């Protein structure tokens, strides 16, 4: 029996947000790079999925927050269909968490606060980037970066109107812990409405 196999099974009497906190905390202690990295799935109006990595920048009982360009592919897809799936996978911990739910915009004040906390260079980069749109030549982006640096040489670079955050309010949270021979431990929490404080929980076959 390996270490992760001797770990206790996921406790179905737990609150899913508490398990999330405990697993993220464990990842923060052991993952060398971006323990807050997750994958975000959105879909096109035709129902075709699209997927990319992003960083979790806040979470509480209201949901899971990330920041991006609103006119990026993901931003445009979320404007059309405000539902998303998130996936955390911590390879060395052999754990996975799936989250699904409705997506809403964070407030302007929340986005301003987060934007102001970023490194100046990252703020300039965001101002200069038409994220996900064609770039004919890298030199064009570099020129836009220089121009933004000059424009904001004496002031704080402001958050662009098209750069903000989204909050995924979970209707589903599934926890997966590897066990030997693919005999994994899975448990899923669901609720019918995002305001509902009561979750249904069930174990799933691996
Ligand atoms: C580990 C990692 C974290 C990332 N975090 C973000 C993020 O928080 N926000 C963001 O806009 N892009 C982030 N990116 C870049 C996205 O994966 C993606 O390339 C970009 O957002 C454009 O995606 P889209 O064209 O689907 O909108 C990250 C990439 C990696 C590999
Ligand atoms: C384009 C882009 N925007 C935003 C982020 C979020 O991270 P941070 O706000 O720490 O730069 C990332 C992280 O990789 C990113 O690549």
UniProtKB/TrEMBL annotation:
- Quote the EC number: 1.4.3.5
Does this entry carry the keyword Nucleotide-binding? no
Q: Where does substrate bind?
A: 57, 114, 118, 122, 182-184
Which InterPro entries would you find in this protein's record?
Pyridox_Oxase, Pyridox_Oxase_CS, Pyridox_Oxase_N, Pyridoxamine_oxidase_dimer_C, Split_barrel_FMN-bd
- Which keywords fit this entry according to its UniProt record? Flavoprotein, FMN, Oxidoreductase, Pyridoxine biosynthesis
Q: What is the annotated quaternary arrangement, including any partners?
A: Homodimer.
Protein name per its UniProtKB record: Pyridoxine/pyridoxamine 5'-phosphate oxidase
- Naturally occurring in which organism (per UniProt): Sorlinia euscelidii
Gene symbol of the encoding locus: pdxH
């Amino acid at each position: 029996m390996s270490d992760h196999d001797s770990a206790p099974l996921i406790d179905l009497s737990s609150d899913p947000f508490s398990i999330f906190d405990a697993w993220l905390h464990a990842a923060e202690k052991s993952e060398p790079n971006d323990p807050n990295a997750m994958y975000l799935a959105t879909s096109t109006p035709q129902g075709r999925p699209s997927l990319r990595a992003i960083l979790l920048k806040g979470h509480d009982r209201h949901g899971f927050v990330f920041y991006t360009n609103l006119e990026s592919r993901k931003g445009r897809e979320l404007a059309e269909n405000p539902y998303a799936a998130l996936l955390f996978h911590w390879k060395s911990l052999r754990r996975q968490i799936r989250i699904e739910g409705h997506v809403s915009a964070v407030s302007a004040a929340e986005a301003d606060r987060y934007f102001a906390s970023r490194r100046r260079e990252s703020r300039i980069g965001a101002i200069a980037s038409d994220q996900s749109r064609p770039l004919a030549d890298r030199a064009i982006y570099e020129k836009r970066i220089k121009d933004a640096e000059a424009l904001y040489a004496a002031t704080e670079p402001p958050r662009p109107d098209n750069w903000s955050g989204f909050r995924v309010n979970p209707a589903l949270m599934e926890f997966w812990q590897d066990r030997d021979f693919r005999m994994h431990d899975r448990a899923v929490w669901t609720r019918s409405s995002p305001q509902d404080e009561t979750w249904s929980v069930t174990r799933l076959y691996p």
